[in-house]
Structure formats: C-alpha cells, structure tokens
Automatic annotation (TrEMBL):
InterPro entries: Homeodomain-like_sf, HTH_TetR, TetR_C_34. One of its GO terms (molecular function) is DNA binding. Keywords: DNA-binding. Pfam families: TetR_C_34, TetR_N. The keyword Cell inner membrane does not apply. It comes from Lentzea guizhouensis. SUPFAM superfamilies: Homeodomain-like. Residues 13-73 form the HTH tetR-type domain. This is TetR family transcriptional regulator. It comes from the Bacteria. Residues 36-55 bind DNA.
Length: 221
C-alpha cells in the first residue's frame, strides 16, 4: 500500500484509518510490546515521519485503537448480554450469568486485553496532554456505556457499576500478560506438569474475579 501526499481532510482521514487498521492487524500477529513504528510504517506504506504527522507516537496510535476496539467490543457485549442473561432470574443467578458472558466475551478479545495491560505503564507515556485528554474522555464514555449495560441486568449494583467495570477491564489487562506463556515456559510446563499448577486461563480467572466482586456487593436475600 502506497499513498500520495494527503491534501484534503478526507485524504488525511483515509491515511489515519489505514494506520489504525494496519496496527489492528499487527495486534492479531504480535503482542503490544512488539508493535513498532518502523514495522507499522513499512506495512502501511508510509514513511515513519509521515505516520508521525497523523499520530505523535506509537503510543498515541495504540491509545486511539484501544478506544475504538473498546467501543466495538461493547456493541458486541450488548448483544451477548441480551442473549445470555435472563432478567427474570434472582440477583445471584443474574450475577452468575453476567459473569459468564463478561468473562467469555473479554477472553476472546486478546488484543484488547493486551492493550489494557499496557495502558497505565506504557501507553499513557510518551504522549501529549491533548492525546491523554482525548483518550480519557473516550475511556470515560466507554466506561459509562459498559456500566449502563451492567446496571440493565444487575440494577442491584447501582452507582458502583462504573467501579466494577473499571476493575473488570484492569484485571483482564493484568491477567492477559500471564495467559500466553512464551515457548520456554511452555516447554517447562510440558516437561514438568506439576509446575503448571498455577497456569492462568483467562476466561476462568476472569469469571472468578467477577463473581467474587459481585458477591461482595449484592444484597443478601
């Protein structure tokens, strides 16, 4: 893919979309830590300096992509919750169903979880105040959408829904770093299975964390 110099706002948006879509494709092949501006510029067909006209840094690209991927995932989650939660059930039963849907849905979003894992320690560094401000506004908007979905099926959570949702996303990010062991660790697990006793499966670990949080806040019947 090669581009001529963008001269209109429409052309600039085409370049911006190409950068984001190329980065998204790279995350299907490699972890966040391995995504580089050099490889991104090569794949998108722009010089590195040209990429930096649209995004001030690698981290700025990944923050924008994280916000977009979160919004897309939430649209899918809305449908998954509608199919997977029976609003006629008791609060405890609905909590279990919400935990099932949330953990299963997030576990499929491996790249998004990886982005959340890198957010605080990596992605929110090497970016300007304006980029962080835009990212935080998008994050708060996405969090409000997610909290609204949770309250729809678990109104008992009430005003704590935002805190619950933030906790779920941060835990998913933290766990994601341990759910794709490197080849050397896999070799150890294969040769000595007893050492794999604490190997983490993302969906199961997430479900346990979600259930634990909800049990602590739901009213006792």
């Amino acid at each position: 893919m090669t581009f001529q110099r963008a001269r209109t706002e429409e052309q600039r948006e085409v370049r911006r979309r190409a950068i984001l879509e190329t980065t998204s494709a790279m995350l299907e092949e490699m972890p966040v830590a391995e995504v580089s501006l050099n490889e991104l510029s090569r794949r998108v067909g722009l010089a590195k300096t040209a990429v930096l006209r649209y995004f001030e840094s690698r981290e700025a690209v990944l923050l924008d992509l994280m916000d977009e991927r979160t919004a897309t995932w939430l649209a899918e989650l809305e449908q998954e919750l509608a199919r997977g939660v029976d609003e006629e059930r008791t609060a405890v039963e609905r909590a279990e169903q919400v935990a099932d849907v949330l953990s299963r849905s997030l576990a499929k979003q491996t790249a998004l979880c990886d982005l959340y894992g890198a957010q605080g320690g990596v992605l929110e560094h090497n970016v300007s105040v304006e980029v962080v401000r835009r990212h935080k506004k998008a994050s708060l908007s996405n969090l409000a959408v997610m909290a609204g979905l949770v309250r729809r099926y678990l109104p008992e959570v009430g005003e704590r829904a935002e805190h619950f949702c933030l906790t779920v996303l941060l835990v998913a990010g933290a766990l994601s770093g341990y759910t794709s062991p490197p080849p050397s660790l896999l070799a150890v697990y294969e040769s000595e299975p007893e050492l794999a006793v604490h190997r983490i499966e993302l969906e199961a670990a997430l479900r346990l964390g979600i259930i634990t949080w909800l049990v602590g806040v739901l009213p006792r019947s």
